């Protein structure tokens, strides 16, 4: 699989299970890229929704993507600490200058004190029916949700205490 180069600016494309585009982040700078992991940074990037509406992110963020994990993590640097938004999603692929994944609705919002809430369970059930998510996908997503929650609780991987700040520092160096 192709991987982006460190320092490269890429788009992030989120799709739904039916293949329709869900959301596009215009510009993310790759700060780390291996055959399995891409870590990117962005700040005040334009986001385009499926209906054409646009908005701009409010704070710097570090994004974590994996080719084997069915989730991605966005760490947002705010005045009161790091807030995380985790999407239960397909593993990413890199194609035509964009990181692409399927968003499976379930999300986890993590606060600076590492408490968290699960989001969009109703949306998941609705889309599962409407788009006929296969049972095997449901099992994979549930297993990966359990793994994600364990990482949060143990503060490992992208939730390790220095992870976001370390990669944000590299992002700032690359943008100079």
TrEMBL record:
SUPFAM superfamilies: FomD-like
EC number assigned by the record: 3.6.1.15, 3.6.1.6
Keyword Ligase: no
Pfam families according to UniProt: DUF402 (PF04167)
Cofactor(s) in the UniProt record: Mg(2+)
Ligand binding (Mg(2+) 1): 87, 103, 107
Summary of the function given for this chain in its UniProt record: Has nucleoside phosphatase activity towards nucleoside triphosphates and nucleoside diphosphates.
Family: Belongs to the Ntdp family.
Protein name, entry field: Nucleoside triphosphate/diphosphate phosphatase
